[in-house]
Protein backbone atom coordinates (compact mmCIF):
# COMPACT_ATOMS: atom_id res chain seq x y z
CA UNK A 1 0.00 0.00 0.00
CA UNK A 2 2.76 2.44 0.95
CA UNK A 3 4.54 1.83 -2.35
CA UNK A 4 1.44 2.89 -4.29
CA UNK A 5 0.97 5.95 -2.06
CA UNK A 6 4.62 6.89 -2.54
CA UNK A 7 4.17 6.98 -6.32
CA UNK A 8 1.03 9.07 -5.87
CA UNK A 9 3.07 11.32 -3.58
CA UNK A 10 5.70 11.70 -6.32
CA UNK A 11 2.98 12.69 -8.79
CA UNK A 12 1.69 15.44 -6.52
CA UNK A 13 5.21 16.68 -5.86
CA UNK A 14 5.76 17.03 -9.60
CA UNK A 15 2.37 18.74 -9.91
CA UNK A 16 3.26 21.22 -7.14
CA UNK A 17 6.60 22.05 -8.76
CA UNK A 18 4.82 22.43 -12.09
CA UNK A 19 2.42 24.90 -10.47
CA UNK A 20 5.37 26.94 -9.20
CA UNK A 21 7.02 26.84 -12.63
CA UNK A 22 3.81 28.12 -14.25
CA UNK A 23 4.61 31.62 -12.92
CA UNK A 24 7.67 31.82 -15.14
CA UNK A 25 6.38 30.32 -18.40
CA UNK A 26 3.85 32.21 -20.49
CA UNK A 27 0.65 30.32 -21.35
CA UNK A 28 1.13 31.83 -24.79
CA UNK A 29 4.08 29.43 -25.18
CA UNK A 30 2.99 26.48 -23.01
CA UNK A 31 -0.60 26.81 -21.80
CA UNK A 32 -0.84 23.45 -20.02
CA UNK A 33 1.23 24.64 -17.04
CA UNK A 34 -1.32 27.40 -16.35
CA UNK A 35 -3.80 24.72 -15.25
CA UNK A 36 -1.24 23.51 -12.69
CA UNK A 37 -0.93 27.05 -11.36
CA UNK A 38 -4.70 27.30 -10.98
CA UNK A 39 -4.67 24.10 -8.90
CA UNK A 40 -1.73 25.19 -6.71
CA UNK A 41 -3.71 25.23 -3.41
CA UNK A 42 -4.94 21.69 -4.05
CA UNK A 43 -1.45 20.36 -4.81
CA UNK A 44 -0.08 22.12 -1.75
CA UNK A 45 -2.76 20.69 0.54
CA UNK A 46 -2.21 17.13 -0.71
CA UNK A 47 1.54 17.42 -0.12
CA UNK A 48 0.90 18.65 3.43
CA UNK A 49 -1.29 15.58 4.00
CA UNK A 50 1.49 13.33 2.72
CA UNK A 51 3.95 14.94 5.15
CA UNK A 52 1.57 14.19 8.00
CA UNK A 53 0.99 10.63 6.76
CA UNK A 54 4.68 9.71 6.43
CA UNK A 55 5.71 11.53 9.60
CA UNK A 56 3.05 9.68 11.61
CA UNK A 57 4.72 6.44 10.52
CA UNK A 58 8.22 7.77 11.31
CA UNK A 59 9.18 7.35 7.66
CA UNK A 60 11.71 9.62 5.99
CA UNK A 61 9.57 9.85 2.85
CA UNK A 62 7.96 12.98 4.39
CA UNK A 63 11.13 14.84 3.36
CA UNK A 64 10.20 14.71 -0.34
CA UNK A 65 7.00 16.73 0.07
CA UNK A 66 8.64 18.93 2.69
CA UNK A 67 11.39 19.98 0.28
CA UNK A 68 8.83 20.59 -2.50
CA UNK A 69 6.83 22.87 -0.18
CA UNK A 70 10.00 24.79 0.70
CA UNK A 71 10.50 25.43 -3.03
CA UNK A 72 6.93 26.73 -3.23
CA UNK A 73 7.09 28.88 -0.07
CA UNK A 74 7.23 32.20 -1.93
CA UNK A 75 4.15 31.25 -3.95
CA UNK A 76 2.35 30.20 -0.75
CA UNK A 77 2.81 33.71 0.64
CA UNK A 78 0.63 35.06 -2.16
CA UNK A 79 -2.28 33.04 -0.75
CA UNK A 80 -1.83 33.20 3.01
CA UNK A 81 -0.18 35.66 5.41
CA UNK A 82 0.22 36.16 9.14
CA UNK A 83 0.59 39.83 10.09
CA UNK A 84 1.25 39.57 13.82
CA UNK A 85 2.30 43.21 14.27
CA UNK A 86 0.05 45.40 12.13
CA UNK A 87 1.18 48.99 11.64
CA UNK A 88 -0.97 51.83 12.91
CA UNK A 89 -2.79 53.78 10.23
CA UNK A 90 -2.47 57.57 10.23
CA UNK A 91 -4.39 60.30 8.44
CA UNK A 92 -1.27 60.94 6.36
CA UNK A 93 -1.56 57.53 4.68
CA UNK A 94 -3.13 57.15 1.23
CA UNK A 95 -6.24 54.98 1.38
CA UNK A 96 -6.44 52.88 -1.79
CA UNK A 97 -9.46 50.79 -2.75
CA UNK A 98 -9.97 48.48 -5.73
CA UNK A 99 -13.31 46.92 -6.60
CA UNK A 100 -14.93 45.08 -9.48
CA UNK A 101 -18.32 46.79 -9.18
CA UNK A 102 -20.02 44.46 -11.68
CA UNK A 103 -21.76 47.44 -13.36
CA UNK A 104 -23.32 48.38 -10.00
CA UNK A 105 -25.63 45.41 -10.47
CA UNK A 106 -27.17 47.00 -13.56
CA UNK A 107 -28.91 43.77 -14.57
CA UNK A 108 -29.98 42.89 -11.02
CA UNK A 109 -27.86 39.71 -10.83
CA UNK A 110 -28.08 39.92 -7.05
CA UNK A 111 -31.90 39.84 -7.16
CA UNK A 112 -31.89 42.82 -4.82
CA UNK A 113 -33.44 46.09 -6.00
CA UNK A 114 -31.41 47.99 -3.40
CA UNK A 115 -28.06 46.56 -4.48
CA UNK A 116 -26.80 49.67 -6.31
CA UNK A 117 -27.62 51.94 -3.36
CA UNK A 118 -25.94 49.52 -0.96
CA UNK A 119 -22.79 49.38 -3.13
CA UNK A 120 -22.64 53.17 -3.29
CA UNK A 121 -23.23 53.43 0.46
CA UNK A 122 -20.30 51.08 1.07
CA UNK A 123 -18.05 53.21 -1.15
CA UNK A 124 -19.12 56.35 0.68
CA UNK A 125 -18.43 54.76 4.07
CA UNK A 126 -14.93 53.70 3.01
CA UNK A 127 -14.31 57.06 1.28
CA UNK A 128 -10.89 56.12 -0.19
CA UNK A 129 -8.39 58.67 -1.43
CA UNK A 130 -7.91 56.57 -4.58
CA UNK A 131 -10.70 54.34 -5.89
CA UNK A 132 -10.19 51.98 -8.84
CA UNK A 133 -13.36 50.46 -10.24
CA UNK A 134 -13.49 47.69 -12.81
CA UNK A 135 -16.63 46.74 -14.76
CA UNK A 136 -17.79 50.34 -14.46
CA UNK A 137 -21.08 51.48 -15.99
CA UNK A 138 -22.56 54.94 -16.38
CA UNK A 139 -25.42 56.45 -18.34
CA UNK A 140 -25.91 60.04 -19.42
CA UNK A 141 -29.58 59.38 -20.10
CA UNK A 142 -30.63 57.34 -17.05
CA UNK A 143 -30.31 59.84 -14.22
CA UNK A 144 -30.29 57.13 -11.56
CA UNK A 145 -27.35 55.43 -13.27
CA UNK A 146 -25.13 58.42 -13.97
CA UNK A 147 -22.49 56.77 -11.85
CA UNK A 148 -19.70 59.24 -12.65
CA UNK A 149 -21.66 62.07 -11.04
CA UNK A 150 -22.97 59.87 -8.24
CA UNK A 151 -19.60 58.45 -7.17
CA UNK A 152 -17.94 61.87 -7.47
CA UNK A 153 -20.62 63.37 -5.26
CA UNK A 154 -20.25 60.70 -2.59
CA UNK A 155 -16.47 60.74 -2.18
CA UNK A 156 -13.77 63.22 -1.35
CA UNK A 157 -12.14 61.85 -4.50
CA UNK A 158 -13.61 64.42 -6.90
CA UNK A 159 -11.20 63.91 -9.80
CA UNK A 160 -11.78 61.05 -12.19
CA UNK A 161 -10.32 59.21 -15.16
CA UNK A 162 -12.92 57.13 -16.99
CA UNK A 163 -12.38 55.15 -20.19
CA UNK A 164 -15.09 53.30 -22.09
CA UNK A 165 -14.68 50.01 -23.91
CA UNK A 166 -18.29 49.87 -25.11
CA UNK A 167 -20.89 52.56 -25.81
CA UNK A 168 -24.47 51.82 -26.86
CA UNK A 169 -27.23 54.20 -27.89
CA UNK A 170 -24.76 57.06 -27.47
CA UNK A 171 -25.47 57.40 -23.76
CA UNK A 172 -24.78 54.05 -22.09
CA UNK A 173 -21.12 53.38 -21.37
CA UNK A 174 -19.19 50.35 -20.08
CA UNK A 175 -15.55 50.56 -19.04
CA UNK A 176 -13.21 51.31 -16.15
CA UNK A 177 -12.81 54.24 -13.77
CA UNK A 178 -10.31 55.75 -11.34
CA UNK A 179 -11.40 58.37 -8.82
CA UNK A 180 -8.91 60.33 -6.71
CA UNK A 181 -8.78 63.30 -4.37
CA UNK A 182 -5.37 64.22 -5.78
CA UNK A 183 -4.91 66.45 -8.84
CA UNK A 184 -4.70 64.52 -12.13
CA UNK A 185 -1.94 65.72 -14.44
CA UNK A 186 -2.01 63.03 -17.15
CA UNK A 187 -4.27 60.26 -18.43
CA UNK A 188 -3.59 57.33 -20.73
CA UNK A 189 -4.64 53.80 -21.57
CA UNK A 190 -3.30 50.46 -22.72
CA UNK A 191 -5.79 48.87 -25.08
CA UNK A 192 -5.95 45.15 -25.74
CA UNK A 193 -6.83 43.48 -29.00
CA UNK A 194 -10.00 41.87 -27.67
CA UNK A 195 -13.74 42.23 -28.11
CA UNK A 196 -14.24 41.83 -24.35
CA UNK A 197 -14.44 44.81 -22.00
CA UNK A 198 -10.82 44.49 -20.88
CA UNK A 199 -8.51 47.48 -20.62
CA UNK A 200 -5.78 49.07 -18.51
CA UNK A 201 -5.71 52.79 -17.79
CA UNK A 202 -3.03 54.84 -16.11
CA UNK A 203 -3.51 58.12 -14.28
CA UNK A 204 -0.68 60.40 -13.16
CA UNK A 205 -1.57 62.21 -9.95
CA UNK A 206 0.26 64.75 -7.80
CA UNK A 207 0.95 63.75 -4.18
CA UNK A 208 3.15 66.04 -2.09
CA UNK A 209 4.68 67.55 -5.26
CA UNK A 210 5.53 64.01 -6.36
CA UNK A 211 4.06 62.42 -9.49
CA UNK A 212 2.58 58.97 -8.84
CA UNK A 213 1.11 56.80 -11.59
CA UNK A 214 -2.02 54.77 -10.84
CA UNK A 215 -2.64 51.72 -13.02
CA UNK A 216 -6.17 50.35 -13.04
CA UNK A 217 -6.83 47.20 -15.03
CA UNK A 218 -9.37 44.53 -15.80
CA UNK A 219 -7.76 41.55 -17.52
CA UNK A 220 -9.34 38.83 -19.61
CA UNK A 221 -12.22 37.00 -17.96
CA UNK A 222 -12.90 33.30 -18.41
CA UNK A 223 -16.39 34.25 -19.61
CA UNK A 224 -18.22 31.12 -18.52
CA UNK A 225 -21.71 30.80 -19.97
CA UNK A 226 -24.85 29.99 -17.95
CA UNK A 227 -24.56 26.41 -19.20
CA UNK A 228 -20.99 26.22 -17.86
CA UNK A 229 -22.04 27.44 -14.43
CA UNK A 230 -24.95 25.01 -14.43
CA UNK A 231 -22.56 22.16 -15.23
CA UNK A 232 -20.19 23.23 -12.42
CA UNK A 233 -23.13 23.16 -10.00
CA UNK A 234 -24.09 19.71 -11.25
CA UNK A 235 -20.54 18.44 -10.70
CA UNK A 236 -20.57 19.83 -7.15
CA UNK A 237 -23.91 18.16 -6.44
CA UNK A 238 -22.99 14.98 -8.34
CA UNK A 239 -26.02 15.28 -10.62
CA UNK A 240 -24.26 15.37 -14.00
CA UNK A 241 -25.39 13.46 -17.05
CA UNK A 242 -22.53 11.17 -18.03
CA UNK A 243 -23.47 11.44 -21.71
CA UNK A 244 -22.37 15.04 -22.10
CA UNK A 245 -19.92 15.31 -19.19
CA UNK A 246 -16.91 15.00 -21.48
CA UNK A 247 -18.07 17.61 -23.99
CA UNK A 248 -19.04 20.13 -21.29
CA UNK A 249 -15.73 19.59 -19.51
CA UNK A 250 -13.87 20.19 -22.78
CA UNK A 251 -15.81 23.42 -23.28
CA UNK A 252 -14.76 24.69 -19.83
CA UNK A 253 -11.13 23.74 -20.47
CA UNK A 254 -11.21 25.55 -23.83
CA UNK A 255 -12.51 28.71 -22.17
CA UNK A 256 -9.84 28.51 -19.47
CA UNK A 257 -7.08 27.98 -22.01
CA UNK A 258 -8.22 30.92 -24.15
CA UNK A 259 -8.36 33.19 -21.11
CA UNK A 260 -4.90 32.08 -19.89
CA UNK A 261 -3.33 32.93 -23.24
CA UNK A 262 -5.08 36.30 -23.65
CA UNK A 263 -4.23 37.38 -20.12
CA UNK A 264 -0.57 36.48 -20.64
CA UNK A 265 -0.37 38.77 -23.67
CA UNK A 266 -2.10 41.56 -21.74
CA UNK A 267 0.24 41.09 -18.75
CA UNK A 268 3.31 41.35 -21.01
CA UNK A 269 2.07 44.67 -22.40
CA UNK A 270 1.33 46.09 -18.95
CA UNK A 271 4.64 44.90 -17.50
CA UNK A 272 6.57 46.61 -20.30
CA UNK A 273 4.62 49.82 -19.71
CA UNK A 274 5.28 49.78 -15.95
CA UNK A 275 9.00 49.11 -16.49
CA UNK A 276 9.20 52.15 -18.78
CA UNK A 277 7.47 54.39 -16.25
CA UNK A 278 9.75 56.92 -14.50
CA UNK A 279 7.35 57.52 -11.62
CA UNK A 280 6.40 55.60 -8.51
CA UNK A 281 3.39 53.43 -9.23
CA UNK A 282 0.34 51.98 -7.51
CA UNK A 283 -1.28 49.11 -9.41
CA UNK A 284 -4.87 48.03 -8.83
CA UNK A 285 -7.14 45.68 -10.65
CA UNK A 286 -8.98 42.51 -11.34
CA UNK A 287 -6.30 40.23 -12.82
CA UNK A 288 -8.68 37.25 -13.09
CA UNK A 289 -5.75 35.04 -12.08
CA UNK A 290 -4.21 33.70 -8.88
CA UNK A 291 -0.84 34.43 -7.21
CA UNK A 292 0.45 31.17 -8.74
CA UNK A 293 0.09 32.55 -12.26
CA UNK A 294 2.25 34.00 -15.00
CA UNK A 295 -0.02 37.05 -15.08
CA UNK A 296 0.47 37.94 -11.41
CA UNK A 297 4.21 37.25 -11.51
CA UNK A 298 4.66 39.33 -14.69
CA UNK A 299 2.58 42.35 -13.68
CA UNK A 300 4.04 42.39 -10.18
CA UNK A 301 7.63 42.33 -11.42
CA UNK A 302 9.67 44.25 -8.82
CA UNK A 303 6.63 45.76 -7.12
CA UNK A 304 5.44 45.02 -3.60
CA UNK A 305 2.15 43.23 -2.97
CA UNK A 306 -0.02 45.00 -0.36
CA UNK A 307 -1.48 41.71 0.88
CA UNK A 308 1.93 40.06 1.22
CA UNK A 309 3.23 43.14 3.02
CA UNK A 310 0.36 43.80 5.41
CA UNK A 311 -2.45 41.27 4.94
CA UNK A 312 -3.45 38.38 7.16
CA UNK A 313 -5.18 35.02 6.72
CA UNK A 314 -6.11 33.10 3.58
CA UNK A 315 -7.09 35.80 1.13
CA UNK A 316 -10.10 35.40 -1.14
CA UNK A 317 -11.30 38.26 -3.32
CA UNK A 318 -13.60 36.42 -5.74
CA UNK A 319 -17.07 35.84 -4.34
CA UNK A 320 -18.49 33.92 -7.31
CA UNK A 321 -18.64 30.21 -7.98
CA UNK A 322 -15.23 29.59 -9.53
CA UNK A 323 -12.44 29.99 -8.59
CA UNK A 324 -12.85 31.22 -5.01
CA UNK A 325 -9.31 32.54 -4.90
CA UNK A 326 -7.47 35.82 -4.72
CA UNK A 327 -7.65 37.46 -8.15
CA UNK A 328 -7.81 41.17 -7.24
CA UNK A 329 -4.66 43.04 -6.25
CA UNK A 330 -3.08 46.23 -4.96
CA UNK A 331 0.62 46.46 -5.82
CA UNK A 332 3.01 49.35 -5.35
CA UNK A 333 6.58 50.58 -5.82
CA UNK A 334 9.15 49.69 -3.17
CA UNK A 335 9.32 53.35 -2.08
CA UNK A 336 5.87 52.91 -0.54
CA UNK A 337 4.80 50.84 2.44
CA UNK A 338 1.48 49.07 2.79
CA UNK A 339 -0.57 49.00 6.00
CA UNK A 340 -3.72 47.18 7.05
CA UNK A 341 -4.55 45.42 3.78
CA UNK A 342 -7.98 43.80 4.01
CA UNK A 343 -11.04 42.98 1.99
CA UNK A 344 -14.56 44.09 2.84
CA UNK A 345 -16.53 40.96 3.61
CA UNK A 346 -19.90 42.31 2.51
CA UNK A 347 -20.30 42.55 -1.25
CA UNK A 348 -23.24 42.55 -3.64
CA UNK A 349 -21.07 41.66 -6.63
CA UNK A 350 -18.95 38.61 -7.40
CA UNK A 351 -15.86 40.33 -5.97
CA UNK A 352 -14.91 41.63 -2.54
CA UNK A 353 -13.60 45.21 -2.43
CA UNK A 354 -9.97 45.35 -1.28
CA UNK A 355 -8.38 48.18 0.69
CA UNK A 356 -4.86 49.13 1.72
CA UNK A 357 -3.25 52.17 3.28
CA UNK A 358 -0.13 53.29 1.44
CA UNK A 359 2.54 55.45 3.03
CA UNK A 360 5.95 56.81 2.01
**Count of separate structural domains:** 2
Report how far the terminal alpha carbons are from each other: 57 Å
Mean pLDDT over all positions = 90
Q: Examine the secondary-structure arrangement and name the CATH architecture of the largest domain.
A: 4-Layer Sandwich
Radius of gyration: 21 Å
Helix content class: 25-40%
For the sheet with most strands, the description reads: 6 strands, mixed
The CATH superfamily of the largest domain turns out to be: Endonuclease/exonuclease/phosphatase
- Portion in strands: 25-35%
User: What is the CATH first-level class name of the largest domain?
Assistant: Alpha Beta
Strand order of the largest sheet: 4-5-3-2-14-13
> Which residues sit in consecutive blocks of at least 5 with pLDDT less than 50?
227-232
CATH topology category name of the largest domain? Deoxyribonuclease I, Chain A
Count of DSSP-assigned helices:
11
Q: What form results from the Cα inertia axes? A: globular
Estimated structural class: alpha+beta
Would you list the SSEs in sequence order as H and E? HHHHHEEHEHEEEEEHHEHEHEEEE
Report the strand count: 14
Amino acid sequence: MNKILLWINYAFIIALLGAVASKYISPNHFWLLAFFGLAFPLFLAVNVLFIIYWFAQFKLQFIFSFVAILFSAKTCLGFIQFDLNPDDVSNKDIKVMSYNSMLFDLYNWSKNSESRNLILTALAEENPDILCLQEFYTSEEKGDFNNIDTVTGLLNAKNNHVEFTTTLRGNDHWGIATFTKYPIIKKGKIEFNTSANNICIYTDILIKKDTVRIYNMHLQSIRFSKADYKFIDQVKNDTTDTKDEVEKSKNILRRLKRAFVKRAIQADAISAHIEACRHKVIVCGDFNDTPASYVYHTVRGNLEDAFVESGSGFEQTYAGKFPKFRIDYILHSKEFNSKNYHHITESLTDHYPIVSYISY
